[in-house]
Specification:
It contains seven helices and eight strands, in the order αββααββββββαααα. The strands form three sheets. A three-stranded antiparallel β-sheet has the order 1-3-8. A hairpin with a 2-residue loop joins β4 and β5. The longest helix has 12 residues.
């Protein structure tokens, strides 16, 4: 055992942090492409239903949470919202965002760029999947408030905004997916052999319609909606 002050070398940045962070943005030389994203966000009933400075995922990416062990208990009382927005495909470093003490706080990320990575950074894509298809684990996205377009402003306008036109299409209680749509049972059947495609389809159907015949869930209870607006 050695006792005493640590050397400066102990705190020196690694090559990855000093030279390769953040990851260069994904881009197509000579052009900027815009895409429409269908994203899903799980939130507590006490959190505002907003998407700026938030983490979201596509349906397959959200299975990293919804197919987790004891997810039905973890997200009991939570709300899931289906968002649709447009974004520049010059994806940046994914930022980790949390809602703490009434504030939205993000760590990491690449300035205004929409962050992207594969679910839990896993899968076959390089560098945790910012620029790959992520067909095996789905994708997570972080949406920086600094990159949000103003109302009526298009992505890629002179202001440099990177995402906008966000619309919350529907919100449902997470409990519906587990108690009525039997998501946990589907996840269990797909454990060990990604992708969780059938489980992701349950999520999509639950938010696409309120018709139970089509696998839909009813709109989130009004009490939850009022609570989220008042915060």
């Amino acid at each position: 055992m050695r006792v005493g002050a640590l050397s400066e070398e102990t705190f020196a940045l690694t090559t990855a942090c000093a030279s390769n962070y953040p990851t260069p943005p994904c881009s197509v030389p000579g052009s900027m492409q815009v895409t429409t994203l269908d994203l899903y966000r799980i939130r507590s009933a006490s959190e505002p239903d907003e998407i700026q400075n938030r983490n979201t995922g596509d349906a397959l990416g959200d299975m990293a949470f919804l197919c987790g062990e004891e997810a039905g208990k973890t997200y009991n009382g939570s709300v899931i919202t289906h968002w649709r927005l447009t974004a520049s495909t010059s994806w940046g470093q994914y930022a980790y965002c949390v809602y703490r003490s009434g504030q939205k706080v993000c760590a990491g990320g690449t300035d205004r760029l929409v962050g992207r990575e594969s679910g839990f950074g896993l899968g076959s894509g390089l560098l945790q999947g910012p620029c790959s298809e992520n067909a095996d684990c789905g994708s997570w996205f972080s949406l920086p408030a600094a990159g949000q377009c103003r109302p009526g402003e298009a992505v890629g306008s002179p202001s440099g905004c990177t995402w906008g036109e966000a619309v919350a299409l529907r919100s449902v209680a997470a409990s519906c997916l587990f108690a009525e749509r039997l998501l946990a049972a589907s996840c269990k059947r797909e454990q060990g052999h990604a992708p969780f495609a059938k489980s992701a389809a349950i999520l999509v159907a639950a938010l696409a319609s309120s018709d139970p015949e089509k696998g839909g869930c009813p709109d989130a209870p009004a009490a939850l909606s009022r609570q989220s607006i008042m915060v």
